[in-house]
């Protein structure tokens, strides 16, 4: 054979060809993007003719800086030449690019010449108003949208309807282009299945089953609701919970053959029904969404604003549907010869449709550029293994589809470049990642199935690096909160161990890697989600490990912001007792709990503010003066100026000296400045802040961590594009959340949406959506592992069960338990496995001695699972007594018992009757009802006296308190409430929660979470441990102990 000339390897520096570059983690993607840009400049292309699109504004700034750095160091002459043209650099996000195009053609597109784009918070608030008000209004009308709202409310429930509509709004612009998942009309299939079932069952059984009473399928909504109701009775007769045909013959079925025949027919009908059901529900949801979206668009037009979703959608609409599309394309083509797209794995079909339209002439090989000898190029760079934004609408399939289309369009003018070098991680980390993900990512025939390609380590400073599987062994029955606390303690302890001992590397002045001991600043803790963030913060604080949370959410729930919001609420309405209570016990005032209790027990004044102004306690004088002064300035000063004065005058800046706290306060002041610019009064500001406070994902203020010797904590998503010398990936055992009811699938730039009910989990669209979600979880795991430069620790809880990403260690490394010991036989030899046992006192309090207090105990109620309930007793008491016509009885009996405990009232009939009369009239109940309420309260008091509980618990005694108010922070929430009774004993605290209904009305474990919060609050207030928690049922004088420590 004659030797043939080998084609040179494609390179990202070939500016004559369009390229798709697959650049894995640590391969220097940003550097290659900048080098491509510089190569274009070097070839004579002017910077204004190059369009570079990045994923974030930060990435755009970084790329521009990288380009200038390369020019300064390698091409100083070109750098001097380019310097005057820096303002012409077109490096921006896709939204900024879209905005620039729309602004240029604003007149032709009937847009405001100076486009105002709502920020994320403003847009969300506007959408929430549209959703809330729109759904309520539709519920009272009688049009098609209203009928759908009522139908969906009946079948889904109000909260789920809102949740799904909100999901569609959050995914604008894709939702605007949504196709009905039932667009392939299933009506004919359903009619056939309906008729077939009727024929197989026969008229007699058809009548007996209830099907004959159901309206025809042509009346979709009513028919669907009737079938759902019927299924609750019929489906269990023929099908198992998993949807399979029952093998055992139910009672009343005389013949197995007949039962099997009917059951098989029902199974076929059942499957078709759920697909038809998905089609109908999806159509309804989209109909309601489009109706509300029209309202949203009218609202934006009236205010002459756009949101970020509009930018992409309107650009797409202009390019494909506007009569001005040719003008837009011609203008773009005249200005642009080269396009560079960063992070292409995180784009979607809509964005690719925009790009492919912009290069329509380029890809045809024709046009003015070719005639002039110019070769326009498209440069796409990304890594499908790092596509982790499916929840934001990103579609990993676009990467492969774009490469195929470019190959077809441009043929010899196109190449794919695969980079395999890794400049980030040490060899052992690369070996670990290569082995693990070559097994987890094996690809497939679908574009969303990721195939792993191994990369080569380019760093070799003489050490292999460190990889460790760190598992905390816990009992299977341990509650989730305790499991996560145990893991957090293990991680904090391990960080403490490696600081000063684990070798890491940094470059010296000669760019040579030199070894040094690990510092705190080298360590990053990566969270899968922030659910258990507070556990890690607590564990790190306990071991005095400095840390900072990067891009942490929960801005509105942080203590400093909660305090400032309370101050806003008080200034807007002084009658806000809860807000004022929070202010009084805060550093702003510094009153003690006992002082606040003394003020609240005063007979003078109505609300807490009135009682405070009339108080004779010396410590309150200064507090009243500055609060009055602040109230007087509300209408004089802007809120931002007023709060800045308060912060300085009350010394709050020195109290919140932590950098995160200080930045959060500055962010809060910036919010106030925005509200002032809108002309909002204090009441409106309070209202706006309360609505914003429901956004749990609102990020805390950014803190510049440069120069801080502190551990960083962030989510994996926040760490994308970053690296760290030492990475602790925690929560490996945490289960992946199931996707919502709406399954999403892209068809080109359109999105196919299908509502799938949890009752039918085998819908093909749902199964496909879940498979895509699982594939993304593996990619997220890959991103986490590849952040590590020198050391990687994968941490989780081991309780004998394989869950979450622990299953990936089983699949990829052969993790298994043999004779009580864990091993990873398939892992690279140097990978270590550490099993830590939690320290007992970190999990549970020591056993407390028995107390003589409870004389009457029904049973010991051990909590089986954690519940999240808020004020459940109040709601239950209200419903129970409202059903008996005794409005506010629960509140009245609580108030009577509190007056007895505080000595305001005595348990004799005259004092009780006087107290009841005052309370009944204060609730605006008819005077004729006073005697009835007095009788019922007397019955409760008599029962308590006879049982001995009145004397043991309710009557005044030393070292006790009643109606103790509290404000605590629980994970990402701030919880407020009152503890009915606290008894301080030498061995610890006894807390008692009063229930005015009978003890057999409700399972006591319903109140576990409430008592747990009370116990925590009491412990913080009295600085003693709670050793016993009780429910006191006043209706039948029963005391139930609820243990919270097992």
Describe this structure in words.
The chain is α/β, with parallel strands linked by helices. It folds into 5 domains: 208 residues, P-loop containing nucleotide triphosphate hydrolases (Rossmann fold, 3-Layer(aba) Sandwich), CATH 3.40.50; 71 residues; 199 residues, Rossmann fold; 134 residues, PCRA, domain 4; 183 residues, Lambda Exonuclease, Chain A (Alpha-Beta Complex), CATH 3.90.320. Helices cover 47% and strands 15% of the residues. The chain is built from 37 helices and 28 strands. It has a 7-stranded parallel beta sheet with strand order 14-15-13-16-19-10-22. Strands 3-2-5-6-1-7 form a 6-stranded parallel beta sheet, with helices on both faces. It starts with 17 loop residues before the first strand and ends with a strand.
State the domain count.
Answer: 5
Strand content: 5-15%
Helix content: 40-55%
- The total count of helices amounts to 37
Query: What kind of oligomer do you see?
Result: single chain
Number of strands: 28
The helix-and-strand class reads alpha/beta
Q: Main beta sheet: strand number and arrangement?
A: 7 strands, parallel
* CA distance, first residue to last residue: 80 Å
Q: What CATH architecture of the largest domain would you give? A: 3-Layer(aba) Sandwich
Average pLDDT number: 85
